[in-house]
TrEMBL record:
Described function: Cleaves C-terminal amino acids linked to proline in peptides such as angiotensin II, III and des-Arg9-bradykinin. This cleavage occurs at acidic pH, but enzymatic activity is retained with some substrates at neutral pH.
Enzyme class, UniProt record, top EC level: hydrolase
Pfam families assigned: Peptidase_S28
A GO molecular-function descriptor: dipeptidyl-peptidase activity
Name under which the protein is recorded: Lysosomal Pro-X carboxypeptidase
Length: 493
């Protein structure tokens, strides 16, 4: 195993295109890029485009678009070596490629080729070019079913055109929404992938499947365990914001204390400010990694512990003192590198994720109920209100969500008839609330990583990794080997 030795950081970036004479099966690759990582692992891939149907499920719209995928075959053992296929999620695929060190670290021992496929409507895979987000007519083909069909068609094509790939077993890998896709990919296309690793994949965060409050409960637990009175003081801060923002002088004080780019002027602004803070705490819970990392944002090791140092007040603290602490805490997230000149409450840093596209998906198929009660969590009480959500979607996109569709099309909690899927979840990750956290059958396996945040197992190994994530990765590789062996057996019998 490689992953317990190497603290990996991209230290060298060679970002040049070089014109090799491309082998004929790569003729649809328009670019060839090389990236150096460090002395241990060479990190290079070709970046390709593939022409694919805009609509897989109807025959009227016969247009195609260019879908991007990245491919790394340095360690691939042909013929027949396995393919690890990343089912891209809501963002630029090179970002997921960068952040999925696990695949890069196991390629050699498995003799595997790596493919990272970009999800339609994100990054450079835009069905209607710059018009892709113009109105619901153009957005109509942004669904998880279309994305899975893209992946299936791409793999079929790679298998028939890449010499030596015809009998290669393919394993789907993904994290977060990409993990949901990898699980669903195995469910819907068992003819194409022999198994799937679905890391931090909340496939049950849909209406009626899990309690809507669990997500924020986990966020709260993360803060509660990370410092004295941390959750209690955040719970109290909402009222303190309300108190202080009730006067013009208070609003101005908050604007200065938080170094806001745009002054808070009224109650409405204060409301938006609270939402922004809430989102900040949620993001921190997702990326509470045991080492310094730059996933959504550059952050220190165990960032919530750092945040909580500023919130360790006794109950006698004044509103102003409390909010000063909250401001220092928020700046851990927004100003760790010391390079931010002001905090912008109309954006929460979320890396290269495609916010608008995901919002559209949430407004159509990916309806994920969330709620808070202020008692079991540290947030202001807010019920899940489907009607209000639906109305908001209708205003923004001119479409309404279908609350039950995801459960119908992907089986909800009734998935025992499927096989060869690993669901890994971090105990610190709020998304584990909607994840599969128990073993369903011998081949629908749940791996828990108690000290792990959002898909920690898919990241590069690190000296500070807790033993639970090392064990999880080892077990994942063990399952991969079994699936590959099964596939070889059935293809030769
Ligand atoms: C991927 O990593 C390289 C090297 O650090 C960086 O230059 C590039 O911007 C990253 N891509 C994305 C989308 O973050
Ligand atoms: C907010 O104002 C009320 C009324 O003055 C006060 O009782 C309370 O302690 C203040 N702060 C918080 C955090 O509730
Ligand atoms: C961010 O940190 C730098 C360095 O400490 C500081 O000069 C700057 O004012 C900070 N920015 C904000 C918005 O607080
Ligand atoms: C704040 O973020 C919004 C949304 O990204 C952007 O349009 C705006 O220009 C930003 N404001 C400042 C002052 O940076
Ligand atoms: C599921 O089964 C595997 C293999 O026996 C085991 O390692 C794992 O801990 C189990 N998962 C849970 C959540 O109990």
């Amino acid at each position: 195993m490689l992953y317990h030795i190497i603290p990996l950081k991209i230290i060298l970036l060679l970002n040049f295109s070089f014109k090799l004479s491309l082998p004929s099966h790569l003729k649809h690759c328009q670019e060839l890029r090389s990236r150096g990582l460090n002395e241990h692992i060479e990190f290079y891939f070709v970046s390709c485009f593939y022409l694919i149907q805009i609509d897989h499920f109807g025959f009227l719209e016969d247009g195609t678009f260019k879908q991007r995928y990245l491919m790394a075959d340095k360690h691939w053992k042909q013929p027949g070596g396995p393919v690890l296929f990343y089912t891209g999620n809501e963002g630029d695929i090179t970002w997921f490629c960068n952040n999925t060190g696990f695949m890069w670290e196991i390629a050699e021992e498995l003799g595997a080729m790596l493919v990272f496929a970009e999800h339609r409507y994100y990054g450079e895979s835009l069905p209607f070019g710059p018009d892709s987000y113009r109105g619901s007519k153009h957005l109509n083909y942004l669904t998880s079913e279309q994305a899975l069909a893209d992946f299936a068609v791409l793999i079929q094509d790679l298998k028939s055109t890449l010499p030596g790939a015809q009998h290669s077993p393919v394993i789907a890998v993904g994290g977060s929404y990409g993990g949901m896709l990898s699980a669903w990919f195995r469910m819907k296309y068992p003819n194409i992938v022999v198994g799937a690793l679905a890391s931090s994949a909340p496939i049950w965060q849909f209406p009626g499947m899990v309690p809507c409050g669990d997500f924020y409960k986990i966020v709260t637990q993360d803060f509660a365990r990370s410092g004295y009175n941390c959750d209690a003081n955040i719970r109290k801060s909402w009222k303190a914001i309300e108190n202080v923002s009730s006067t013009a002088a208070g609003l101005q004080w908050m604007t200065e204390e938080f170094s806001l780019c745009t002054p808070l002027k009224n109650k409405n602004d204060a409301f938006g400010f609270k939402n922004w803070l809430q989102e900040t705490w949620v993001n921190l819970a997702m990326v509470d990694y045991p080492y310094e990392a730059n996933f959504l944002q550059p952050l220190p090791r165990w960032p919530i512990q750092v945040v909580c140092k500023y919130l360790a007040f006794d109950s006698t603290v004044s509103d102003y003192q409390l909010l000063r602490g909250v401001s220092q805490a928020a700046k851990v997230y927004y100003n760790y590198t010391g390079s931010s000149s002001c905090l912008n409450t109309s954006q929460t840093a979320t890396g290269s994720l495609g916010f608008l596209g995901w919002y559209y998906q949430a407004c159509t198929e990916m309806v994920m109920p969330m709620c808070t009660d202020g008692v079991h969590d540290m947030f202001e009480p807010e019920e899940w209100n489907f009607q209000a959500f639906s109305d908001e979607c209708n205003i923004i996109f001119g479409v309404r969500p279908r609350a039950d569709w995801a459960g119908t099309v992907y089986g909800g909690k009734d998935i025992t008839s499927h096989s060869n899927i690993i669901f890994s979840n971090g105990g610190l990750d709020p998304w584990s609330a909607g994840g599969v956290t128990y073993n369903i059958t011998d081949s629908l396996v749940s791996i828990m990583i108690p000290d792990g945040a959002h898909h920690l197992d898919l990241r590069y190994s690190n000296d500070h990794d807790p033993p639970s994530v090392r064990a999880a990765r080892a077990l994942e590789v063990k399952y991969f080997r079994e699936w590959i062996k099964q596939a070889k057996k059935s293809s030769t019998s």
